[in-house]
Every structure is written in structure tokens, then in C-alpha cells.
Amino acid sequence: MKKIDFNKPLVVLAPLAGYTDLPFRSVVKKFGADITISEMISSNALVYKSEKTLRMIEKSPSEDPYIVQIAGNKPELVRDAVEILNDIDGIDGIDLNCGCPAPKVFNHGSGSNLLGDLKKLEEILSTVKRYSKKEYTTAKVRIGVNDKIPVDIAKAVEACGVDYLAVHGRTRAGKYKAPVDYDAIKAMVEAVSIPVIANGDIKDYDKAKEVLEYTKANGVMIGRGAIGKPWIFYQLKHGIEDISEEKKKEIILEHFDSVLEFHGEHGALMFRKLLHSYSKGYNGAHEFRDIINRVSDKNVMRDMIENFF
């Protein structure tokens, strides 16, 4: 029996550099995400056995199914990276990043650069498919580099034999500011027979429902909308619009404890930026952040979280 069931719309955590580490993924998994994906992994760093990169691939026992996302611009390098992942247990699929707009990734010929050369995209994605021994091969794309070519991209990805496609409804030029083109996502859903997951500006329960209804996608992928509000996965999983303050506090504390468990004492310092996001919109948030910026003791920080939220 396959681990990913597309009979009902899925809720997927998008890979987000600097945020979707193991602690965060384990929290959203516990509270409702159907699929978790690693932060983007450089094929180059993987092939050169970077310790930091290998640690980024580690997963929580609860992450099932778990997919590792790689980026790369050369078929032979991508093949070597896939073969390394083949030997690591607990990974259910490999996703090729064809959407990252960051200049250092784009200029390297990876990420959204591949959308400007669909033959190259097919060559690299087909390499992942050919060499992977994992259950799933997937791709995450945007709808073009400068011009929108959503259907061409969807068909190129489908031709490589992937199991599903995730699409961020902006071009590379649109970065994270241009309006998301849900019509383009809808056109991709209609153009291919593989499942399509919609991504881009899905920041709350209502928006997720609206996007699913409009595009008829097989699921939604949430990235930046989950930072500071990971309970969106709980809401979508349980079909509830309102979430109690108690449940929010439970999720924040679960995240804090997971960060400490994975990163050790240093985790308290790392959690400061996350508390900045969590406290948005709360009364006294400004003062709370000021104090938090000076706290490094994990017990003091935990007490402050208990009292503030």
C-alpha cells in the first residue's frame, strides 16, 4: 500500500531554508501535516559528504512519509547525490527543486534556472527518477522564469514519470511579492494526469480552502504561512477554523522542546527568532521580544513562553 494517499486533499510542509529543520517538521507532523520535506539540499554538498548537510537530512521518527529535496544542475552530480540518499534509510522520496529564486542558486544553474531550459530540467529530473530507489520522485516548480509557461512546465515534469508536482504560483522574477497566479496552477492541474499540489501565499485556513476549491489541486503546500502559525496544519487536518490559545501554547512549547532536544543548549538562542514570529499580533509583543533577546537560559525562556502565551 502506498504511503501517500491522494484520495483526499493533502497538507504538505514546504521546504524553507533556515526554518523547516527537524524540530519544526516534527511539530507540524504531530499536529497534522501529511508530508514533510527537508530543507533544500545541495547535491554538491551531499556528494562531498558535508557534515552539516548530512545532519540536515536527519528526520524525526514521526516523519512518515518523509521526502528529501535536492538541487543540482549537472546530471552526473545529481545521480551521485541520489545514490548517496539511496543508502540512507527512512527517506520515502526525492524531490528536485526547480523553483528556488535565490540568486546564488539561480546563478549556479539550479532551482528556478531549470525553468528556462525545459530540456535540461527533463534531463536532470529523469536522472533522479532513473537512479532513485525510493518510493517517490517529485518536483517543486514555479510557473516560469520571467514569462509564465505553466502548462509547458507541468507537461515536461509529467514526462519524467514523477509521482506528483508541487507548484508555487509565481515566476522566478515574481520572487515572493508578485500576486500568486492561481489560474496558472488551475491550468496545470487540468493539463496533466499526475497529482498537483498548490503553493504560494496560503497563510490561513480560509485561503487554503479557497485555493483547493478554485484550482482543484490535490493538496496545498504551506511554507512561509506556517512560520509563527504552524497550527494551520492542525486546523486543516481537523477542519476547524478557530483554534484555542491553549492549543497554540501547546504547539509553541512542543516546538521549543524539540529545538532543545535537537540543537542542545544553543537551541534557546535559536528559538529567539521563532518567538519573534510566534508573538506577532499579541499584546505586549514588543516588550516580550526585547526581553527574549537577552534571555539565553532555557528554563527562563520556557517560563516566559508559559506566561506570555
TrEMBL record:
<keyword id="KW-0285">Flavoprotein</keyword>
<dbReference type="Pfam" id="PF01207">
    <property type="entry name" value="Dus"/>
</dbReference>
<dbReference type="InterPro" id="IPR018517">
    <property type="entry name" value="tRNA_hU_synthase_CS"/>
</dbReference>
<keyword id="KW-0694">RNA-binding</keyword>
<comment type="function">
    <text>Catalyzes the synthesis of 5,6-dihydrouridine (D), a modified base found in the D-loop of most tRNAs, via the reduction of the C5-C6 double bond in target uridines.</text>
</comment>
<dbReference type="InterPro" id="IPR001269">
    <property type="entry name" value="DUS_fam"/>
</dbReference>
<keyword id="KW-0820">tRNA-binding</keyword>
<keyword id="KW-0521">NADP</keyword>
<comment type="similarity">
    <text>Belongs to the dus family.</text>
</comment>
<keyword id="KW-0288">FMN</keyword>
<feature type="domain" description="DUS-like FMN-binding">
    <location>
        <begin position="13"/>
        <end position="301"/>
    </location>
</feature>
<keyword id="KW-0560">Oxidoreductase</keyword>
<dbReference type="InterPro" id="IPR024036">
    <property type="entry name" value="tRNA-dHydroUridine_Synthase_C"/>
</dbReference>
<keyword id="KW-0819">tRNA processing</keyword>
<dbReference type="InterPro" id="IPR035587">
    <property type="entry name" value="DUS-like_FMN-bd"/>
</dbReference>
<dbReference type="InterPro" id="IPR013785">
    <property type="entry name" value="Aldolase_TIM"/>
</dbReference>
<protein>
    <recommendedName>
        <fullName>tRNA-dihydrouridine synthase</fullName>
        <ecNumber>1.3.1.-</ecNumber>
    </recommendedName>
</protein>
